Amino acid sequence: MKTGSPNENSNASAPSRGSIRFDRNELAGAFGDIGTDLPLVVGMILAAGLDAASVLIVYGAMQILTGLVYRLPMPVQPLKAVAVMVIAQTASNKITSDVLYGGGFAIGITMLLLTVTGLVDWLGRVVPRIVVRGIQFGLGLQLASLAMKDYVQREGLSGYGLAAIAFVISVLLYGNRKYPAALFILVLGAGYSMFRLHLDLYSASQQISFQVPKTHAPQWNNLVAGFLLLALPQVPLSIGNSILAARQTAHDLFPDRAPSLRKISFTYSLMNLINPLFGGIPTCHGSGGLAGHYAFGARTGGSVIIYGTLYLMLGLFFSSGFQNVIQVFPMPILGVILLFEGLALMLLIRDVSMAKSDLFIALLVGLMASGLPYGYLIAMVAGTILAHGLQKFKKGF
What we know:
The chain is an all-alpha fold. The chain has one domain (24-396). The chain is built from 18 helices and 2 strands. The chain has helices at 24-29, 34-48, 52-70, 80-87, 97-116, 119-126, 129-151, 156-172, 181-195, 201-205, 220-253, 261-274, 287-295, 302-317, 322-325, 331-346, 356-371, 375-396; strands spanning 77-78, 283-284. Helix 2 (34-48) crosses helix 4 (80-87) and helix 11 (220-253) packs across helix 13. The longest helix is centred in the middle third of the chain and has 34 residues, at 220-253. It is globular and about 75 Å long.
């Protein structure tokens, strides 16, 4: 399984710089990150009592804008640390929608400051590539573990069977640009939902109504609370995965079209300054999403635009019954997609595997990132110190 150079069975020419395609491969790649996104987006809507139309419309709009700006399969993702805290909250420690919006705004301000001061470029120079590889490996490990432990097991024995068939299809058709794997496993999942889960699309169609986002003005007290509760745990993960690792992954997959750290950081901050004003959830870019879209066939921003249009249409017309509509994507199918996204990320570590010391540091960083509280912050700092210390030690000899 080669992440960087998949089998181009159709002999399709590589897209020219700045082009956007809408073909079967972009369509298949559009669903390469849905295993991560959809459960988190839905979970946040339900846990924080958010307006579904606002969340879905804004989320879709940001996908479309990102596809147009980057013209690469650089999707938008929910902020994972924020999403986990919101979904796992208890009744006695509830993160309200106002605090969530304040947190998103605070994250946007923080990342904007890192961008305009040049600190993000400094971090790009200071943090070694082997540490970024470790962060990618740690995130891939988390995604693959989540897929295997939670998603695949959700439907019991039938879910295992569904996941097994989807896995075989994915392996057999991985990198096949004539017959993209994602299209077949999505059809498989839809058929399973209608016949096994008795998905009633007719009832869902009766709930069609046109909706628009609701505007919201973040208050100072919610901004402060959001910064303390949500921004502080999220920002280290964002620097490691959404900025440094996303830039490295883009360079790995599109060396002639990779955006700069500052551009990625700027659009990240801009999204989170806009999202709260229209009831949207905090969002980021991410190495996992880019790897997922690429792994299932995407090569241009067309996949991200297609993906964003799905959420936009769902929010504009189907938000009243979105909980029924999303059942067309059963959890075992999302789990297989998520698993391959994680594997694609973990495989990027192979270019540091020749030197034992580099591989050791990258693996250690990955394990710390995936297994410790505030793991991405600890892993990035400890890995950077260890890498530079080892380099100086070698020079001493």
